[in-house]
Amino acid sequence: MGRMTATPAPTPDSASATNRPKRVLLAAPRGYCAGVDRAVIAVEKALEQYGAPIYVRHEIVHNKYVVQTLERKGAIFVDQATEVPPGNIVMFSAHGVAPTVHEEARVGRLATIDATCPLVTKVHKEAVRFAKEDFDILLIGHEGHEEVIGTSGEAPDHIQLVDGPEDVAKVEVRDPSRVVWLSQTTLSVDETMETVDALKEKFPQLISPPSDDICYATQNRQIAIKELAGQAELVIVVGSKNSSNSIRMVEVAKQAGVPAAYLVDFASEIDEAWLEGVTSVGLSSGASVPDILVQEVLEWLAERGYADVEIVKTADESLTFSLPKELRNKDLRAEAEKLAAAAPVKE
């Protein structure tokens, strides 16, 4: 008879890891912010009131699912207002546009709906005011992002982009006593303040905006991600690859120390290998993501044993914005037809 060998008793740590139930830590708040909700409803309302097509300059919000859903309803997304045939309705996205885009629409004889998020509009107005007062404006943001392009277009002679702390060394201003910083609304709060600190070191008289430019929803979602990251072994953020605030959430999770964090548009993009050895999965979504996509991820995780869902709530959100004024008591289709019949506008 062979000699029996005893199996070592599990250590407390390995025992707890083995016996710990699988769970999902679901962030609250997550998903749609007030500006995104307003913009998406604006497209749906325009289609309902005026019929298809409704042209939209750029993606109304940065989310693949939302764009595809609106396309099926009759929205047509274009890169420039100049692509829209005269006599049509064009909507400007939540990210905002430069004054030159409004002029392009006027010359193109288009009726317009401005779905710019009011919090982005606030930054535009700050840029106009400080430019009139002849300040140098240091706009913290990511080069090429639609929001940055729109804000910069309000005062191109006064604004220079600062794309992170590493850009600060090359910033030059006319008068160090007349400098103000503004920011893109969807940035990482921590990275933005790191950039601001570097700018203040170089320009001690640097003025801050009257109120925080980074939107409440961006900040709330980053705070929730930090909370999840402290309790989870894996964080999944639902959002599109061109969504600045969604990308920032993944970065914040990694900086907060979570072993792994990923961005996915759909549940089908999750790799089962990510779950190996994981008992706690943190889940959230960017500010342009409808909750149906989060629910699909929850179902996908439940099928793999992660049926226990614990809400991690870090803030309450109740802010709402009224729809663009052009959708209230105005026949835009008739206005568009009148514009089409008019003589071409001189540039």
From TrEMBL:
<feature type="binding site">
    <location>
        <position position="244"/>
    </location>
    <ligand>
        <name>dimethylallyl diphosphate</name>
    </ligand>
</feature>
<feature type="binding site">
    <location>
        <position position="288"/>
    </location>
    <ligand>
        <name>(2E)-4-hydroxy-3-methylbut-2-enyl diphosphate</name>
    </ligand>
</feature>
<feature type="binding site">
    <location>
        <position position="215"/>
    </location>
    <ligand>
        <name>[4Fe-4S] cluster</name>
    </ligand>
</feature>
<feature type="region of interest" description="Disordered">
    <location>
        <begin position="1"/>
        <end position="20"/>
    </location>
</feature>
<dbReference type="Pfam" id="PF02401">
    <property type="entry name" value="LYTB"/>
</dbReference>
<feature type="binding site">
    <location>
        <position position="117"/>
    </location>
    <ligand>
        <name>[4Fe-4S] cluster</name>
    </ligand>
</feature>
<comment type="function">
    <text>Catalyzes the conversion of 1-hydroxy-2-methyl-2-(E)-butenyl 4-diphosphate (HMBPP) into a mixture of isopentenyl diphosphate (IPP) and dimethylallyl diphosphate (DMAPP). Acts in the terminal step of the DOXP/MEP pathway for isoprenoid precursor biosynthesis.</text>
</comment>
<feature type="binding site">
    <location>
        <position position="33"/>
    </location>
    <ligand>
        <name>[4Fe-4S] cluster</name>
    </ligand>
</feature>
<feature type="binding site">
    <location>
        <position position="243"/>
    </location>
    <ligand>
        <name>(2E)-4-hydroxy-3-methylbut-2-enyl diphosphate</name>
    </ligand>
</feature>
<feature type="active site" description="Proton donor">
    <location>
        <position position="147"/>
    </location>
</feature>
<comment type="pathway">
    <text>Isoprenoid biosynthesis; dimethylallyl diphosphate biosynthesis; dimethylallyl diphosphate from (2E)-4-hydroxy-3-methylbutenyl diphosphate: step 1/1.</text>
</comment>
<comment type="pathway">
    <text>Isoprenoid biosynthesis; isopentenyl diphosphate biosynthesis via DXP pathway; isopentenyl diphosphate from 1-deoxy-D-xylulose 5-phosphate: step 6/6.</text>
</comment>
<comment type="similarity">
    <text>Belongs to the IspH family.</text>
</comment>
<feature type="binding site">
    <location>
        <position position="245"/>
    </location>
    <ligand>
        <name>(2E)-4-hydroxy-3-methylbut-2-enyl diphosphate</name>
    </ligand>
</feature>
<feature type="binding site">
    <location>
        <position position="288"/>
    </location>
    <ligand>
        <name>isopentenyl diphosphate</name>
    </ligand>
</feature>
<feature type="binding site">
    <location>
        <position position="245"/>
    </location>
    <ligand>
        <name>isopentenyl diphosphate</name>
    </ligand>
</feature>
<feature type="binding site">
    <location>
        <position position="95"/>
    </location>
    <ligand>
        <name>dimethylallyl diphosphate</name>
    </ligand>
</feature>
<feature type="binding site">
    <location>
        <position position="95"/>
    </location>
    <ligand>
        <name>(2E)-4-hydroxy-3-methylbut-2-enyl diphosphate</name>
    </ligand>
</feature>
<feature type="binding site">
    <location>
        <position position="244"/>
    </location>
    <ligand>
        <name>isopentenyl diphosphate</name>
    </ligand>
</feature>
<dbReference type="GO" id="GO:0051745">
    <property type="term" value="F:4-hydroxy-3-methylbut-2-enyl diphosphate reductase activity"/>
</dbReference>
<feature type="binding site">
    <location>
        <position position="62"/>
    </location>
    <ligand>
        <name>(2E)-4-hydroxy-3-methylbut-2-enyl diphosphate</name>
    </ligand>
</feature>
<feature type="binding site">
    <location>
        <position position="145"/>
    </location>
    <ligand>
        <name>dimethylallyl diphosphate</name>
    </ligand>
</feature>
<feature type="binding site">
    <location>
        <position position="145"/>
    </location>
    <ligand>
        <name>(2E)-4-hydroxy-3-methylbut-2-enyl diphosphate</name>
    </ligand>
</feature>
<feature type="binding site">
    <location>
        <position position="62"/>
    </location>
    <ligand>
        <name>dimethylallyl diphosphate</name>
    </ligand>
</feature>
<feature type="binding site">
    <location>
        <position position="243"/>
    </location>
    <ligand>
        <name>dimethylallyl diphosphate</name>
    </ligand>
</feature>
<feature type="binding site">
    <location>
        <position position="244"/>
    </location>
    <ligand>
        <name>(2E)-4-hydroxy-3-methylbut-2-enyl diphosphate</name>
    </ligand>
</feature>
<dbReference type="InterPro" id="IPR003451">
    <property type="entry name" value="LytB/IspH"/>
</dbReference>
<keyword id="KW-0479">Metal-binding</keyword>
<keyword id="KW-0004">4Fe-4S</keyword>
<feature type="compositionally biased region" description="Low complexity">
    <location>
        <begin position="1"/>
        <end position="18"/>
    </location>
</feature>
<keyword id="KW-0408">Iron</keyword>
<keyword id="KW-0414">Isoprene biosynthesis</keyword>
<feature type="binding site">
    <location>
        <position position="245"/>
    </location>
    <ligand>
        <name>dimethylallyl diphosphate</name>
    </ligand>
</feature>
<feature type="binding site">
    <location>
        <position position="95"/>
    </location>
    <ligand>
        <name>isopentenyl diphosphate</name>
    </ligand>
</feature>
<feature type="binding site">
    <location>
        <position position="243"/>
    </location>
    <ligand>
        <name>isopentenyl diphosphate</name>
    </ligand>
</feature>
<protein>
    <recommendedName>
        <fullName>4-hydroxy-3-methylbut-2-enyl diphosphate reductase</fullName>
        <ecNumber>1.17.7.4</ecNumber>
    </recommendedName>
</protein>
<feature type="binding site">
    <location>
        <position position="62"/>
    </location>
    <ligand>
        <name>isopentenyl diphosphate</name>
    </ligand>
</feature>
<keyword id="KW-0560">Oxidoreductase</keyword>
<feature type="binding site">
    <location>
        <position position="185"/>
    </location>
    <ligand>
        <name>(2E)-4-hydroxy-3-methylbut-2-enyl diphosphate</name>
    </ligand>
</feature>
<feature type="binding site">
    <location>
        <position position="145"/>
    </location>
    <ligand>
        <name>isopentenyl diphosphate</name>
    </ligand>
</feature>
<keyword id="KW-0411">Iron-sulfur</keyword>
<feature type="binding site">
    <location>
        <position position="288"/>
    </location>
    <ligand>
        <name>dimethylallyl diphosphate</name>
    </ligand>
</feature>
